[in-house]
Amino acid sequence: MALIAAASAAFRHSLEVGSNWVLAILVVGIPLYGYLKGVKVYEAFVEGAKEGFQVAVRIIPFLVAVLSAVGAFRAAGAMDGLAHLLGPVTSRIGLPPEVLPMAIVRPLSGGGSLGILGSILAAPGLGPDSYAGRLASVLQGSTETTFYVLSVYCGAAGIVRYRHSLVAGLCADASGLIATVIIARLLWG
Amino acid sequence: MRRGEGQGSHTPRNTGSGSGFARKLAAMRESCQTFAPMNVVFVLLFVIALIAAALKGDVKTVGQGALDGAGSAVTLAIGLIGVMSLWLGLLKIAERAGLVEKLSRAARPVFRPLFRDIPDGHPALSSMLLNIAANMLGLGNAATPFGIKAMEELEKLNPTPGTATNSQALFVAINTASLQLVPTTVIALRASAHSSDPAEILLPTLAATSCSLVVAIVVAKTLERIWR
Fold first, then answer.
1. What is the pLDDT of residues B173-185, one digit of tens each?
2. Dist CA A53 CA B86 (whole Å)
3. Among A151, B73, B119, B139, which has the minimal tally of Cβ within 10 Å of its Cβ?
4. What's the pTM?
């Protein structure tokens, strides 16, 4: 176990350093390379950057549609109601009632699920080293805000008919949840 | 609604005002559009919200929540302008310098098995590669602009604008599986909650993420043949 911990710490550290370097190299390297290649870098940059505004404006209707529905859902406390209904079943398979609302909100809202994770980690009876705390931590890292990704990416390209992409994304979330529960039970159950 | 768009090329002759069968088929397609998951989810979220709020006796939260959500959508989009502009500006330089083309050629073998309908050296490939690399490194601010650029480039190859192509659907599905190698936010949260080992969730998270990535790809590749 100690060896795994040391290896994962080293892995994490080198990745952090690596991503800082990649970011710096991209920001500095691209203009430098372009300049050396004889590109009018300033003009090219401004021309490209102009699109940034249009893209942001283009995705607004898609984001408003998704986030207003999600906003109503969250503000009404619907995930707590659903968790109340599903809780008795899911707690038997290793998904505690404290984590269930987070599992429901995760594909809908990244900030929402992060908020629930924070409250689980801060709760006196639970905390980061409890089963629920560890499970929720893994869940946050292994799933994605599917509806946000879909509305931003498809919105920017002007796509309104998503075909199978939403189902594929939700299946990915569901399998991430199932895998998280299985792994958490094996390691900490 | 817009019947006829997005049906692909496999029913070239259903426009002729012909048999009842063709009309029935078209009507079926249309109702499929109405019951497409996004439409269902959109309505369900509101309905479940109203039921939950009514049971609690506080219906005010539904309208207020929708209004707040709409407001935060605009804040989010406005917040994207800066990073979007920065990366799109850098990408334009890279394009003029021939870097995008080079990267697209290099990325081709990686994507060939999954994204067969993207031609060699197409600029979408470089944006896709940059998006996935940025996601893995946890550079979310850079990943989104690259992903958006990739979707726009893929849309140029789209014979049915407005309807996702196989490549677009697969690319989005991959993005909905969390690709980040190190969940830095979670580790930071755990550290601030005085965990005895904040990073112990690292390898379990990687394992769970790999599962969801594989499922995203398998489901997308399986459904792309039947879901038009």
1. 999 988 888 888 8
2. 11
3. B119
4. 0.85
Answer whether B137's CB lies under 8 Å from A22's CB: yes
In angstroms, the separation between the Cα of residue A177 and the nearest Cα of chain B is 8
Specify if B7 maps to a domain: no
How many angstroms separate the most distant Cα atoms in chain A? 66
Please report which residue ranges of chain B form alpha helices under DSSP H: 20-34, 37-56, 60-96, 99-111, 123-136, 140-156, 166-176, 184-192, 202-223
Residue B67, amino acid: L
Q: Please compute the mean of the pLDDT values over residues A135-141 and round it to a whole number.
A: 95
Substitution target in A21, A26, A73 with the highest count of B β-carbons within 10 Å is A73
H-helix or E-strand containing A123?
Answer: none
Q: Is residue B26 assigned to a domain?
A: no
Q: How far is CA A92 from the centre of its chain?
A: 26
Q: Which residues contact A170 (CB under 8 A, 6 or more apart)?
A: A107, A146, B37
Type of residue at A62: F
Domain for residue B75, yes or no?
no
B80 lies in some domain: no
Average pLDDT over residues A160-178: 93
Q: Is B38 on the interface with A (CB under 8 A)?
A: yes
Instruction: Note which residues in 173-212 of chain B have CB less than 8 A from chain A.
Output: 173, 175-178, 180-187, 189-190, 193-205, 207-209, 211-212
Rg (CA), chain A: 21
Residue among A186, A149, A55 at smallest CA distance from B177: A149
Is the ipTM reported for this complex over the cut 0.90?
no
List, for residues B13-68, the tens digit of each pLDDT value. Answer: 444 445 677 777 666 666 666 667 888 899 999 999 999 999 989 899 999 999 99
Rounded Cα gap, residues A176 and A182, in angstroms:
10
Is there a contact between A99 and A139 (Cβ–Cβ < 8 Å)? yes
Q: Structure tokens of B174? A: 């991959």
The closest alpha carbon to A102, from A150, A86, B68, belongs to A86
φ, ψ of residue B10 to 5 degrees: the values are -85, -5
* pLDDT tens-digit series, residues B97-134: 999 888 888 888 889 899 988 998 899 999 999 999 88
Number of domains in chain B: 1
